[in-house]
């Protein structure tokens, strides 16, 4: 079965001990994958950083989310994310391809760990298979983060899925969550019952659930159970 886990945002709204407790709860619940959102740890001690990164490394699949890298700000951000990749021994770094006209410089920086994500309806590039072919033509070494919520936001029939699967054989992992419209782009699947999104999972690649933010991620159990039961054919 797919390794399953959650998008995990490191936030100043919680202490390091609280965030470590939540990571342990996810591991105890059987989560094997995690995608880390982290912009800075300016006020965190080196000891606490080590504790945090050691906890992240208990997950068998580890990704970093770096959605806002652009060529204009690359120098500082590249160094930051290269350091994170090293410290958690990441398998991929998810990058939004919109906002730039070239992408190879990111595989120059991150090698084959660079993983471009197909985009939601609000972005100006990356919503279609054609857009993503343009990205991969420029950066053929890159992996691909397949966001099924984003496909649904552009095409709730999910008919685009077949064309997306023809894109690349370098799928890194999936993103899944419910879609509540432009005002609520990420919501829980167990409330929205948008099983058409989960039915589009066709491979055993890891699954990152993006249904929660910092305020409600502690409620992850219901969503984990829902996704796991679906994959086991119990729904």
Overview of this structure, please?
α1 packs parallel to α2. The protein has helices spanning 16-28, 46-56, 74-88, 104-110, 129-138, 148-154, 161-165, 189-192, 195-198, 220-231; strands at residues 4-9, 33-37, 61-65, 92-95, 114-117, 143-147, 171-176, 207-209. β2, α2 (46-56) and β3 (61-65) form a beta-alpha-beta unit. The protein has an eight-stranded parallel barrel, surrounded by five helices. The chain has ten helices and eight strands. It is of the alpha/beta class and 235 residues long. The chain is globular and about 45 Å long.
Form type: globular
- Which strand order spans the largest sheet, edge to edge or round the barrel? 1-2-3-4-5-6-7-8
| End-to-end distance | 16 Å
- Quaternary class: single chain
Classify the secondary structure makeup into a structural class. Answer: alpha/beta
CA-based gyration radius: 17 Å
Helix content: 25-40%
SSE succession = EHEHEHEHEHEHHEHHEH
User: Beta-strand level of the residues, as a percent range?
Assistant: 15-25%
Number of helices: 10
Largest sheet: 8 strands, parallel, barrel
Structure summary, number of beta strands: 8
Mean pLDDT: 93
**Which stretches of 5+ consecutive residues score pLDDT under 50?**
none
